[in-house]
Amino acid sequence: MSTFWSLWIIGLTLINLGLIIWVLMANRKVAISDDDDPENKTTGHIYDGIEEYDNPLPKWWFQMFVGTIIFTAIYLALYPGLGSFKGLLGWTSQNQLEREQERADEQYGELFAQFAAMPVEQVAEDPRALKMGVRLFANNCAICHGADAGGNYGFPNLTDNDWLYGGTPELIKQTLVNGRNGNMPPWGPIIGEENVVAAAEYVLSLSGREHRQELAVAGQKVFAQNCAACHGADGKGNQLLGAPNLTDDIWLYDGTAKGIRHSIRNGRNNVMPAQQERLREEKIHLLTAYVYSLSRNME
């Protein structure tokens, strides 16, 4: 932060604090004697027959407000809040996080190490490990895959046995460590709209869904020439490429005729971020076991 903006923030903060104190003191009035003229006890404001009395602020309220001002002054002295002034305690959210992580490592480090030395399959059967795994999942994965790991539009369901890149412990860990980049090129400009429609009808036929047979026949040729290289001649996909199986009824995106045409015409692009720089190896091992357990429970 530049010196100018630091001074700007400091100035605004102190001016506002000073104005608050001025307003508070300006409205602190001496109590009016009961012997005074009742007419002088009101502000003169009348609304719907209701008069506003000109009484002083309640003592308890005034003292409480003064207390909050004192608290504010102490807080701004101890913690960052005045521009680039770091506060007398030198506190930052980063160093607090690091201290909490160090305490957590001391408390749970031995347990993490114990699970890290076990095979994923064995960890996936340990109730303690799964409790830790579900917390890791909630903090790092649920925003995309859902709290129940049931997936969202464009983000796969992790509770079934349909895997884009493979569901073995080794491949799940590889996905977590390195991330994945799914890319389907837009075929609309290449094959034209007529062939897009035909290919979509053929894709519908692969999973036994309602389709227009005459277009599906033409679409089979389009599929063989342009799509089979990734999805396979039989449409059952290729996990090495992350190309989904088109013969089942599981869809990462919209599986309707309109949605399939959109995917073929415009392509799809999706990224699973790598976790190796965000999570330690022991946590990735636990997370792998948890994700692996989700689909094993469906068997």
SSE layout and pairing:
Blueprint (H helix, E strand, L loop, with lengths): L2 H24 L15 E6 L2 E4 L5 H20 L14 H24 L3 H4 L3 H14 L1 H4 L23 H10 L1 E5 L3 H19 L6 H14 L1 H4 L25 H10 L1 E5 L8 H16 L3
Antiparallel strand pairs: 1-2, 3-4
Helix pairs in contact: 3-12, 5-12, 7-12, 8-9, 8-11
Explain what the structure shows:
With 299 residues, the chain is mostly helical. The protein folds into 3 domains: 3-78, no CATH class; 94-179 and 274-296, Cytochrome Bc1 Complex, Chain D, domain 2, CATH 1.10.760.10; 182-272, Cytochrome c-like domain (Cytochrome Bc1 Complex, Chain D, domain 2, Orthogonal Bundle), CATH 1.10.760.10. Helix content is 55%, strand content 7%. The protein is built from 12 helices and 4 strands. The strands form 2 sheets. It has a two-stranded antiparallel sheet. It is elongated.
